[in-house]
Amino acid sequence: GAAATTSAEAPAQGESSATQRLFNTLLVTFAAVFMGYVCARLRWIVQERGDMKGMGFFVGQIAFPLLIFNTVATAKLGSVDLGTLLACSLGKAVVMAVTWLLTFVAYKPSRSRAQRFLTATVFSFFAIASNDFAVGFPIVEALYGQELDMDIYIAGNALVGSVVFVPIVMVFFAIGKVMERSGSEVVADEHSPGTMQACLCTMVVMVRDILLNPVIIMTILGFVYKGFFGFTLVDHGMDHHLPSLLGELVTLVTSPFGMCALFLTGTNLNGFKISLWPILLVSMKIVLCAYASYFFAGFLIDRDKPPLHRLILENFTWLYGMIPSSSAPLIFAQQYDPDSAQVVATAIMAGLVLAGPMMFGSALFLEAASVDMASTITNVQYTMAIVSLACGGTFLALLAVTYSTWDFACPNRVLILAFGCTLVVYEALMLLMNPDLRPESCMAYNEDPTKAFLSILIGWVQNSSQFMVISMEVLCVLRVRAPGGVPQSSVLSFGLVALCLGLGIVLSIVTIPNTVTEMCSTVGTEQKYINVWPNAIWIYILLAGMVALGIRYTVLAGGHHKDQGDLWARAEPASPAANPEDPEEPLPCSSGEAAPSEPADAGESGPTGGDGLKHVSKGLIFGQVFRLCIRVVNTSQVIASQRIMGSFAQMLVVEGILEHGQLPILLGLMMVDASFPQEFQRAWSEFPRLWERQRRDHGDTSSEPSVPEPLPLDFTRTLTVVRF
Q1: What is the DSSP string of 280-339?
Q2: Do 238 and 322 fall into the same domain?
């Protein structure tokens, strides 16, 4: 209950804690979804045969509307903070807009505008379609118990979704269908009587469907009952109950809702295929939506409220933002854009998997909301530094093996090489700064972070790595602006690296390194006042600049490739054989020629350049933009002097994991790239010849048996190639 968000006190003997209740709720919730998924996969339930049609009607048209009616009619609306609902709604609106734009310009851009419009609408709806009642209600009840009436905020957000967001989505679907039926990108004569009449009929049907929606009707009836028959409600402290006979009937009908809704979600998850876009959608829904809601809560929640109550509401906006998506987007995808159904189904399943640990971690932080969690952040950063250094060692080993195939005249590849090496140095320096290993480093930082030598070094490599990613994005823009015109020169490549290192030194003088202040706050010495405004200004400039470059890239790509805009990431592009009119973007390290699809003969040694690992660079670009969005929110909380506790502590932990997890991400991007596994395979096959050559160069002509050929490594078959 309140202990979940206000204190770290242990629960009374015999009473389970909020964390235990939440764990049990999450386990039961996922078990219900998994049960439906298994039944569908084993074909015990066949959706196409209409096996779940009756249950779907009961859940969507009877139980869910009655649940809305009961929540509205029995809630004590006077205690509702409208700023909390507005913060959650604005967070959804921002994430919805960003997801729509990103999908429209980047997801399979060679398709028609109508298809991209429909897909963007489906994906953007996924990013805001929280499973409020089937997942949200039991989680909130488990976390807050009966001591705080937070159910009304779940119901309020569900109501806003039904009244505001769903109609907007339906309007977009109607527009997309009109574009699709027109058979062209733009209706031939938008002022013709037939076109205007079709649009008018569509609007009339849409308004009728909204007004006759059972959720809207039962919401109105709930307010009517509260206004005219409120005297019949029974007061139960935090809320009211319906009178005996009506209350028992509503309880009987709505009791199966939770299990049925979760089971239906599982039966809809037929297709499951991991790729870039499901991960992107889940990140938008679970992570970015939570950050955006919490960001707006800091401005919109009434500041006259008691600090404890305000903290509870802010923590709720964070928790609400990470509630996973329902199966409604999948139903819309199957109806309006069947090609995207598999992506949405995968994203729903992945969202459930990610949201579970996120919400459980949130419960741990909220249960200790009055405790400073800086030590937890220190431990997380220490662990991530160890993991990153292990991945960094693997990265350097891969570079050593593929050294003969590495094209140092390719600026993109050299930037990736320098980026990885810089991150290795970065994580090593972070270990030296960790107070558990070297507390004197943090003591020097706390005295004056602008003069601490180790702090300046960390800021240097941190900022240099950011400039390297910006340089990759600039190369993407130049490559589209002048296909084949980016010079290939080792002088240019290493000159770019030197420029990034130089700019990093300059920036490290006026800013402090990210994530270090929170880590060093655990050391006993008092921290000197740290001015974070230079960091905030730089973050805003950097984010705005990268977004502007992305927009410029999209516009140029669209102009050169006939609607083939590609914003940082090309997801699952069609193969040339399947879609010959979809030409690829010019390769970073060739004069317009495509990289060979098969590895070169083992006897042909020397650098190839390949495609310049362009998909790796695009993944790094998107990752940096995503981290910057998170950093904007966290920096605003630091400026507001927010203590490291509750939801803010978890937000810093997420930022730390993403910041210090760049090396594992880089390694993963390289291993799933289209060209690097082939280069590694070819370089690996060259090892025996290099060994023999070394022996001959040293005059060893003995008749010792030669080194056996290494086992063939066919990464192209064992790894899933992900294109951005």
Answers
A1: HHHIIIIIIHHHHHHHHHHHHS-TTS-HHHHHHHHHHHHHHHTPPB-SHHHHHHHHH-GG
A2: yes
Show the tokens assigned to 378: 């220190």
- The count of structural domains within the chain is 2
Which token pair is 275?
A: 């790729």
pLDDT of residue 633: 87
User: 379 and 359, same structural domain?
Assistant: no
Could you say which of 654, 671, 688 is where a domain stops? 671
Give per-residue pLDDT as tens, 607-660: 444 456 888 888 899 889 989 989 998 888 888 766 777 788 888 888 898 999
Residues 661 and 530 in one domain: yes
**Alpha carbon distance, N-terminus to C-terminus of the chain:** 44
Q: Any idea what the CATH number is for the domain that residue 219 is in?
A: 1.20.1530
What is the residue range of 181's domain? 17-367
Confidence (pLDDT) at 81: 86
- Quick: pLDDT tens for 609-624: 445 688 888 889 988 9
CA distance 390 to 682: 24
Which of these, 622, 627, 628, 630, lies nearest to 724 by C-alpha position? 622
Residues 356, 480 share a domain: no
pTM: 0.74
Q: Which of 637, 653, 671 is the last residue of a domain?
A: 671
Q: Which residue in 652, 703, 719 sits closest to 380, CA to CA?
A: 652
Weakest mean pLDDT among 140-149, 256-265, 401-410, 714-723: 714-723
Task: Please give the structure tokens belonging to residue 60.
Answer: 């969507």
Q: Which residue has the tokens 């790509």?
A: 557
Computed over every residue of the chain, the mean pLDDT equals: 78
**Range 153-168 burial, b when 16+ CB lie within 10 A, else e:** bbbbbbbbbbeebbbe
